[in-house]
Design a protein that fits this description.
Keywords: Membrane, Transmembrane, Transmembrane helix. The protein is of the alpha+beta class. It is 19% helix and 28% strand. It contains five helices and twelve strands. Strands 3, 4, 7, 8, 9, 10, 11 and 12 form an eight-stranded antiparallel sheet that branches. The longest helix has 18 residues. It is globular.
């Protein structure tokens, strides 16, 4: 049977009601945040997003998502797939999102600039773009938000956090710094415990308590010949979660590329100081 005969037999296919590009962009971001928020389990693991009966599998360690044919699940895992998404438990923030983003940007920028090596400049980062096509300046926080949407047996969206990123350029080379500020709960909440590093990486993790009762989880890991990640997770008593990360590569450590500088632009001790800054809170 020819394609024309087949089309004539089944009729014209209905137009898709799913914005596939929007789904891909959102799931790339969710995969990135999953790796930032929980690198021990996310490193080396692909992230699958299913929409409208098509499986989009995001292969690990690649600069962009790769579409791999997949089969839809034979049965929904839950009567309500959105019920499986971790809900945020923190109280609503008292400020408008734009006001909070501007305030947090000033605090983060000052804290980072005080600690990077002399002569280091901050430049825009490729991941500091949200929504798609809207770039933000170096370490300028933006509010990532998407409502939960049920698509048959799947659920998408459910993001609600502030994020900032910058490329660092200094005498030793280029790196990057990322930060997330969020209410507790949800897919961007900080880690509160250390676990074993993933296979194929070397790393260490230390859990301590901050000066005001904060839970601090500081970790570092790398793969041979690739970039090093320094990351600090802080849960503050007021309900704010903060994640700050530094990598010794200009783009992203999830790409299997050699580093661009000997070590990340900020040490674990420096990142801890940044994350514990009283100004990095959603409840001023």
């Amino acid at each position: 049977m020819s394609r024309e005969q087949f089309d004539a037999a089944i009729g014209t296919a209905p137009a898709s009601t799913v914005d596939v590009e929007a789904v891909l962009d959102r799931e790339r971001r969710r995969a990135r945040v999953r790796r930032v928020a929980n690198p021990w389990t996310a490193v080396g693991a692909g992230v699958a997003a299913v929409a409208a009966g098509a499986a989009f599998v995001f292969a690990p360690g690649e600069p962009a998502a790769t579409l791999v044919p997949g089969n839809p699940p034979s049965a929904p895992p839950s009567p309500d797939p959105c019920g499986l998404v971790m809900p945020q438990t923190g109280a609503p923030i008292p400020e408008k999102a734009d006001t909070a983003a501007n305030r947090l940007s000033g605090v983060l920028t000052a804290a980072v600039q005080q600690r990077v090596a002399a002569g280091t400049t901050l430049q825009p980062h490729a991941q500091g773009e949200y929504p798609k096509g809207t770039p933000h300046g170096p370490l300028a926080f933006f509010h990532v938000f998407s409502a939960q949407v049920r698509n048959g047996s799947t659920c998408s969206g459910g993001e609600d956090y502030f994020m900032a990123a910058a490329t660092t350029a200094g005498p030793a080379g280029k790196g990057n710094v990322w930060a997330i500020a969020t209410r507790l709960g949800g897919n961007a909440t900080p880690a509160t415990e250390c676990t074993d590093p993933p296979e194929g990486t070397q790393g260490s993790c230390d859990r301590t308590t901050g000066p005001h009762g904060e839970t601090v989880v500081a970790l570092t890991f790398s793969s041979p010949g690739q970039a090093t990640v320094n990351q600090v997770n802080v849960v503050k008593p007021d309900g704010t979660g903060v994640i700050v990360e530094a990598e010794n590569i200009a783009s992203s450590a999830k790409q299997p590329l050699p580093p661009d500088m000997p070590s990340p632009p900020l040490s674990l001790a420096q990142l801890t100081e940044v994350a514990l800054d009283p100004g990095l809170t959603l409840y001023p």
